[in-house]
Amino acid sequence: MPIHEKALIRPENLLTHDKLVVDGVDVSGHWSTFIAPRVVTDYNERLQDEIAALPGGEFVHRCWQCGSCTNVCTVNAVNPDFNPRFWIYLIRMGMESELLRDKDIIWQCVSCNKCTDACPRQVVPEGVMKATARWLELKGHTPKSSSTHFDEEFSEQVIATGKIEEGRIIRNFFARTGQPLRQEWLVEMAKRIARRLPVKLGMVMGFAALVRPRTRGWAKARRAIEGHVAREETRRRAALGLASAAAAAPPSNDSARTG
User: pTM higher than 0.85, yes or no?
Assistant: First the structure.
């Protein structure tokens, strides 16, 4: 379904004339607003398939452009330029260059899931927004977001040890994103926790921070998860026309990465 709203037409594509007569008819004023003709030559015919290949984008093809997602969107209420319906339209039309013009705000989805609840076609618009943000990162159009850094650190720790050690996650996340470890809010939180933390639990947490405990018998599960993750990553990158993650990534030092 085409998009006709004037608000969604780029200002530079709107032509206006204070005085205009067409075929003897005076169309001056607001009647003289026209859309500049253009020819789009950079369609990405696989754009919908690329988004659908990423987690959350599987049902983008179901959209029938009713606008329910944008109508209830939390972010759209404060920023009208944040328009899930319009971006899904661009994805389905293969208009990649138009989609990229909004690359700096697509990631702002707050995952409130109001759109998913309102969607009559189970498109899962929230998932499509997350898939689109991930697509932008994988294609190199935007830098890796802080949430992606956190997800990767969290997943790597779970896969490696079968356990979560919060302090290590925080330290490594800050290191990944170039943030100083000593932050006022974190120091204050640590002080409040320390005042109420049982001595035994504090000792257990300190021990875990030092020795990095692992789930007993985790090796077999780790290998299975690593194999699944590698296969899924290869499949997704292939769908996007990208090299495999192993070929694209530089050699890493596990001990340096995991702290």
Answer: no
